[in-house]
Amino acid sequence: AKADGRGRAQCFSTSLDSEARAQAALLADLRQAVAKGEFVAHFQPRVGAGDGRASSAEALVRWQHPQRGLLYPDAFIEMAESSGLIVPIGQWMLQAACKAMADWRRAGVALQRVSVNVSPVQLVEGDLVGQVREALAANGLAPESLEIEITESLLVDDHEPTFAQLGALRAMGVAVALDDFGTGYSSMAALRKLPIDVMKIDRSFVTDLETDSSALPSVRAIVALAQAAHLHLVAEGVETPAQADMLRELGCHELQGYLYSRPVPFAEFGRLPCVRQAG
Ligand code: C2E
Ligand code: CA
Ligand code: CA
Ligand code: CA
């Protein structure tokens, strides 16, 4: 038994070591990636609930790793946030999204705006307002063409500089969306104070709509909240026509999910069936 215990302990410490080594290697790779520009923006359409046509696009980061291939955010966002590298990565994404929007405009792809996910770290440590101004100006875009998506975690301890930056962005005309709504702890009282224009219902509610009878009243309550606060309401993770029908009838304005398209590279976006192309 003793030998067993030691064996397990040894095994445990070896796996800790290799875990730590893997993390250190990932961090080194991530620094390289920032220096070399190995990130790619993919785009997923958001469609009007009424007409099913793309009205906006969400930019989602991917990392073209030289050995490991295309990596998704789950593999590196946490590390990017804890190391602060999310600040330059996020700035690059803002630029990439604004450039895509300007290119679509020129190509006759009619979209109201492009939305970009922003980490709390970018608001606490970075100059998000300055970066947004720069990205818009560099691409000749009006602020109304941009939306930033933040999560509730940012808003729990009403952090003054954060609210000030969000306020400055909204004053410019940039829309602010609250992502993953319903997964955190926002109360009605908190929601009233939030500097936001758009609410995104979390995918988990949408997934459960057809199968879990408790999901429908939850979504109804979220819709009522959004309507009371005059927010634009987006549902994410829409995968079936039945979900889309329910969400449309409930009063969502925009729908997003695999039913319309997975996130795709810039070059493919303009060719999606739901995307309007002039000429
Ligand atoms: P999110 O902002 O909630 O983005 C939605 C995620 O759900 C995306 O995963 C998207 O590909 C996926 N998705 C979209 N439609 C469906 C659907 O119908 N079914 C299912 N099962 N999934 C769907 P992705 O691209 O892997 O991104 C994961 C998360 O990583 C994002 O969640 C966001 O929190 C974060 N992220 C992505 N890009 C960025 C970025 O540029 N900056 C920051 N800070 N975070 C990012
Ligand atoms: Ca998002
Ligand atoms: Ca989301
Ligand atoms: Ca999410």
UniProtKB/TrEMBL annotation:
Please provide the Gene Ontology terms (biological process) for this protein. signal transduction
Asked if Secreted is a keyword of the record, the answer is no
GO annotations of cellular component type: membrane
Keyword Membrane attached? yes
Give the range the annotation lists for the signal sequence: none
Q: Which UniProt keywords apply?
A: Membrane, Transmembrane, Transmembrane helix
EAL domain: residues covered: 23-277
Q: State what protein this is by name.
A: Diguanylate cyclase (GGDEF) domain
What stretch of the complete protein does the chain hold? Answer: 653 to 931 of 932
